[in-house]
């Protein structure tokens, strides 16, 4: 599981990280995650949902979620959320440690969480808490780093002080979710690699002529076989 950093140290790390990176650039990986989740939400055909985003960071995704209902966003980054509240007054932001926040039992129709699972100390407890906030039959829309791809095909800097890290593969993710959820979809998105043979397979220069002919089908094929940076899961809370 790695080193467990105290909450104040984690809070300082995420305040600084969000201010340095996420407040300035969303990035293609996060944009693809958002694209998938917006697609799931559109398929529900509802505009009056109660939506929780756990680990919303700078709140960048909350306005898009707000197109489908009322949004509550939580994050450890209290200073970042102060600025987010000014930018997005229509969103209810709740700063603090998600594991200790009282957000109501059976209070939400949908829970969204992007790349948070790998940064919490107790992953089963995190999943249980998400389930507890959802109404029976409510939906979890989750994105998390794909350990198989990150470890085998990418060089990633070691965690900084205050940054927890425990990636999962698709089998571990399904096992985590199975206790409280029925997994409806589980797949990878955003093929990325910066080392080994996969670096060549994902080379934009090499792929550009192919994409000009077949569009995004090659990227979607790589996602389908599990070579994406991100694992996406859609799951329904068990009654």
Write the layout of secondary structure elements.
Elements: H1 7-22, H2 28-44, E1 49-54, H3 62-65, E2 69-75, H4 78-87, E3 92-95, E4 108-114, H5 123-133, E5 134-145, H6 147-153, H7 170-178, E6 181-191, H8 197-201, H9 204-214, H10 217-224, E7 228-237
Parallel strand pairs: 1-2, 1-4, 2-3, 4-5
Antiparallel strand pairs: 5-7, 6-7
Pfam families: Methyltransf_23
Protein name: Class I SAM-dependent methyltransferase
InterPro entries: SAM-dependent_MTases_sf
Describe this structure in words.
It contains 10 helices and 7 strands. With 239 residues, the chain is of the alpha/beta class. The chain has a single domain, classed as Rossmann fold (3-Layer(aba) Sandwich). It has a 7-stranded mixed beta sheet with strand order 3-2-1-4-5-7-6, with helices on both faces. Helix 3 links the parallel strand 1 and strand 2. The protein is globular, with a radius of gyration of 18 Å. It starts with 6 loop residues before the first helix and ends with a strand. The relative contact order is 0.15.
């Amino acid at each position: 599981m790695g080193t467990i950093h105290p909450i104040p140290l984690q809070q300082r790390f995420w305040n600084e990280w969000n201010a340095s990176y996420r407040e300035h650039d969303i990035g293609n990986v996060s944009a693809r995650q958002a694209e998938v989740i917006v697609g799931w939400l559109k398929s529900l055909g509802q505009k009056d949902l109660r939506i929780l985003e756990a680990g919303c960071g700078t709140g960048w995704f909350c306005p898009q979620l707000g197109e489908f209902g009322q949004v509550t966003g939580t994050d450890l980054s209290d200073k970042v959320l102060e600025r987010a509240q000014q930018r997005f007054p229509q969103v209810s932001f709740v700063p603090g440690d998600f594991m200790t926040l009282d957000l109501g039992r059976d209070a939400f129709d949908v829970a969204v969480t992007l790349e948070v699972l790998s940064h919490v100390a107790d992953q089963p407890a995190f999943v249980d808490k998400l389930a507890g906030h959802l109404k029976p039959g409510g939906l979890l829309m989750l994105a998390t780093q794909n350990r198989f791809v990150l470890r085998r095909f990418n060089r990633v800097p070691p965690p900084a002080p205050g940054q927890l890290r425990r990636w999962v593969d698709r089998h571990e993710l399904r096992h985590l979710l199975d206790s409280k959820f029925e997994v409806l979809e589980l797949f990878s998105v955003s093929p990325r690699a910066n080392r080994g043979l996969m670096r060549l397979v994902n080379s934009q220069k090499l792929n550009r002529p192919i994409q000009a002919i077949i569009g995004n089908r090659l990227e979607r094929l790589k996602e389908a076989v599990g070579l994406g940076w991100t694992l996406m899961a859609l799951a329904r809370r068990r009654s």
